[in-house]
Design a protein that fits this description.
- The chain contains 20 helices and 13 strands.
- The chain is of the alpha/beta class.
- The protein has two domains: about 210 residues, 3-Layer(aba) Sandwich (D-Maltodextrin-Binding Protein, domain 2), CATH 3.40.190; about 190 residues, Periplasmic binding protein-like II (D-Maltodextrin-Binding Protein, domain 2, 3-Layer(aba) Sandwich).
- The strands form four sheets. Strands 2-3-4-1-5-13 form a six-stranded mixed sheet, with helices on both faces. The protein has a three-stranded antiparallel sheet with strand order 11-8-12. Strands 6-7 form a two-stranded antiparallel ribbon.
- Helix 3 runs parallel beside helix 5, helix 12 packs parallel to helix 19 and helix 16 packs across helix 17.
- The radius of gyration is 22 Å and the shape is globular.
- The N terminus is likely disordered.
């Protein structure tokens, strides 16, 4: 892969995750709209009734970016033709597939989707939503609603989905109904620089580095060693957040709508404050210019917690940036499991209740999320880790398979070991807002401009603005 292509992948990966982040101004403008849209999508307490039929001439798919459009275009085998707009296709049976793309800025995608789903029963046949996509951080909003179909109502069976990673099914399941399927799994690893590892640890061998980072106590010890040699263990405040947030012991909101801050998140706060005060990080913020710079040869950060997309797109793109002597970090990163299993990101395909394209929706789900041959091809072509244990086990055991960016290392092998360890049974419908507001509120505390008590006060104020039904 050329450096130009890596840079393109980086920009794509950066944009892919920026869609998750709402600015403070946007949240203030929303003023609890997200919470209202939760209510608008119904409740799992209502009787579930599936309305699904065949015969529709137009298949409408709602997305927020072009990621699924490209997967559909490149790997769905039943496309007859495509036009230059790259957002409309014709299937072999004559069905016209139309993608409606709404950017996620200021929550626009969810807001538009909520309106469309609410009007589904009165929409014209050619305008009905047939498929929509959702992310893990707000999955339960749609999984717990009657606007998404149980995949079994389409004809997708347990046998069809048996090779999917369990956590990808847990996230999209309510009342034993699987309401969405994903073509990808996004286990996370720790990506580190080989040159810094050699200097400080005396080796960059992934197994030996993993032994030194196998738990948080060891990780903290290496952080001190890095500081002594003039390096930062992590780039900034947010870098380890997902590792802690993905290992909570209970949902962040209980049945009484009370916010319950898990001990794992408190451990993140304690660690990050210590790292900041001791100079173990560079005080950057996720996605800012300094954070990106730290992933290049011009940075001094040892490593980054990243899931599949982040390593192959964002980190690889940043590593391709050269210094004044024309040097870059391509081939000079490796990955190891790190101190705990976690995941970051992922996209699910849901069938909208009321679809009149049952057969086509079923076939898309089967081909793009259940077919091992297609899953293997996606990974070989893009290095995106796919949601099929058979395909990924095959690649994990392929001695000839490896990543040029990672110096030939077979990172799929490590992903395949990490993915089964992910447990997402403790997600809540409020995770997106709580995660964002907690990181945002604690930043000033880490920087030393406010007390921890004030940071907590700010957090609860921010999060209850987004979700007024929640209480401290």
């Amino acid at each position: 892969m050329t450096n130009k292509k890596k840079r393109e992948n980086y920009l794509r990966g950066k944009e892919k995750m920026k869609k998750k982040i709402l600015t403070g101004a946007a949240v203030a403008a929303l003023g609890g709209l997200f919470a209202l849209s939760l209510a608008s999508c119904g409740s799992n307490k209502e009787a579930y009734k599936a309305e699904v039929s065949d015969g529709g001439k137009v298949l409408n798919i709602r997305v927020w970016n072009d990621e699924f459009i490209s997967r559909f275009r490149d790997y769905y085998p039943s496309i007859k033709s495509e036009d230059k707009k790259d957002e409309q296709f014709t299937l072999n049976d004559g069905t016209v597939v139309k993608f409606q793309q709404t950017a996620n800025k200021d929550n626009a995608y969810q807001n538009a989707l909520d309106i469309a789903l609410k009007n589904q029963s009165t929409a014209a046949a050619d305008d009905k939503v047939d498929i929509f996509l959702f992310e893990a951080d707000y999955a339960l909003k749609y999984v717990n609603s009657n606007y998404s179909l149980d995949v079994k109502d389409l004809g997708l069976t347990d046998d069809d989905t048996k090779n999917m990673y369990q956590y990808t099914k847990d996230i999209a399941t309510a009342d034993s109904r699987l309401k969405g399927v994903s073509w990808q799994a996004t286990p996370g690893l720790f990506a580190y620089r080989t040159d810094i590892a050699d200097e400080v640890l005396g080796t960059h061998d992934p197994d030996q580095v993993q032994a030194k980072l196998a738990d948080w106590t060891k990780f903290d010890s290496v952080a001190a060693d890095m500081k002594a040699k003039g390096y930062a263990m992590l780039s900034g405040y947010d870098d380890s957040y997902r590792v802690f947030s993905n290992n909570v012991k209970a949902p962040l909101v209980n049945k009484d709508k009370k916010i319950v801050i898990d001990e794992s998140l408190k451990s993140w706060i304690k660690q990050t404050k210590e790292y900041t005060d001791k100079g173990y990080n560079n005080k950057t913020t996720l996605w800012d210019d300094n954070w990106n710079k730290q992933q290049t040869i011009n940075g001094n950060t040892f490593g980054f917690f990243y899931s599949t997309w982040g390593i192959n797109f964002t980190l690889a793109g940043n590593a391709a940036i050269k210094n004044g002597e024309g040097e870059d970090l391509i081939g000079k990163y490796r990955v190891c499991q790190g101190p705990a299993a976690y995941y970051w990101g992922g996209t699910w395909i849901a069938a909208a209740n009321g679809t009149d394209n049952k057969s086509q929706v079923l076939d898309i789900m089967k081909k793009l999320t259940c077919d091992a041959t297609i899953a293997e091809k996606i990974t070989r072509d893009t290095q995106d880790y796919t949601n099929n244990t058979v395909a990924m086990t095959k690649l994990a055991n392929d001695a000839s398979y490896g990543s040029e960016f990672l110096g030939g290392q077979n990172h799929v092998k490590l992903f395949a070991e990490a993915a089964p360890k992910i447990d997402m049974k403790n997600v809540s419908a409020y995770d997106q807002g709580i995660n964002e507001k907690l990181q945002e509120a604690m930043k000033d505390y880490f920087a030393g401009t406010i007390t921890e008590e004030k940071a907590w006060e700010n957090f609860y104020s921010k999060v209850t603005t987004v979700y007024p039904e929640l209480k401290k």
